[in-house]
């Protein structure tokens, strides 16, 4: 007759429950999977399936009672670790959103906004379009598979029970500055082109005061902005692929990986 002690049952439950918490924490904010149009049950089932497949290959988990207060804090800790891992990818996708905001303000399309039901936000149309473009580039590069592999490797590089305070959290905070830097780097050509257009119309307003700059300047600024967007599409994929590699490398190094 098979007999199991309470310690063995707790370790069996913990070997599945705590990996599930870390994976589910990543799926809550990960691009595409973290959107509201993906049903919660689908995310839970996918996270549970991955946790069940990798449970036999995990390092020994801490022997903590599954119904104790320590088990609860450990589960919350795993949720936060998964959340922070996926935050690198969220910032990567928001690079394109901020790029769209910068270009929209320069070309006069900041007032053309639309509601994003997936994220519960209201962004300019150009931002929404570039965000979809960036997500498709990320998927075309198999970035989602690499990110999932990093999450699985995190259980080997940062085993369950190692704590969260020893993680390089300041490195994650510094990625906020990386978000602004990367988006502005992609927007510099369009910003400079629009600046030249505005300088040109400023000179015209001084040379010909009777010329109605407002009725002429807005259509020309919008037309030049659309041309800049068209020309930027040829250079964005190669630059954005470098940003994807940078974000995935930072995600891997966050949990102690060496590249």
UniProtKB/TrEMBL annotation:
UniProt topology in membrane: Multi-pass membrane protein
UniProtKB keywords: Bacterial flagellum, Cell membrane, Cell projection, Cilium, Flagellum, Membrane, Transmembrane, Transmembrane helix
Protein name: Flagellar biosynthetic protein FliR
Cellular localization per UniProt: Cell membrane; Bacterial flagellum basal body
The protein's role, per its UniProt record: Role in flagellar biosynthesis.
Name of the encoding gene: fliR
Record-annotated membrane-spanning stretches: 12-33, 40-59, 79-99, 178-201, 213-233
Family: Belongs to the FliR/MopE/SpaR family.
């Amino acid at each position: 007759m098979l007999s199991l002690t309470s310690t063995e049952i707790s370790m069996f439950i913990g070997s599945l429950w705590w990996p599930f918490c870390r994976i589910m924490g990543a799926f809550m904010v990960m691009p595409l999977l973290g959107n509201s149009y993906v049903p919660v049950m689908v995310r839970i089932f996918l996270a549970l399936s991955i946790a069940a497949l990798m449970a036999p290959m995990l390092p020994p988990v801490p022997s903590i009672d599954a119904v104790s207060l320590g088990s609860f804090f450990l589960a919350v800790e795993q949720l936060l670790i998964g959340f922070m891992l996926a935050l690198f990818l969220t910032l990567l996708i928001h690079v394109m959103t901020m790029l769209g905001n910068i270009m929209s303000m320069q070309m006069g399309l900041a007032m053309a906004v639309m509601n994003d039901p997936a994220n519960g936000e209201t962004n300019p149309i150009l931002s929404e379009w570039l965000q979809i473009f960036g997500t498709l580039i990320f998927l075309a590069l198999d970035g989602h598979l690499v990110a999932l592999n990093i999450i699985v490797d995190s259980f080997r590089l940062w085993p369950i029970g190692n704590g969260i305070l020893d993680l390089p959290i300041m490195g994650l905070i510094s990625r906020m500055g990386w978000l602004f830097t990367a988006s502005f780097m992609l927007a510099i050509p369009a910003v400079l082109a629009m600046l030249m257009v505005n300088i040109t119309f400023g000179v015209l307003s001084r040379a010909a005061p009777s010329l109605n700059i407002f009725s002429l300047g807005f259509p020309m600024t919008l037309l030049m902005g659309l041309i800049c967007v068209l020309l930027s599409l040829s250079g964005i994929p190669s630059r954005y692929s470098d940003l994807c590699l940078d974000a995935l490398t930072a995600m891997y190094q966050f949990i102690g990986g060496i590249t």
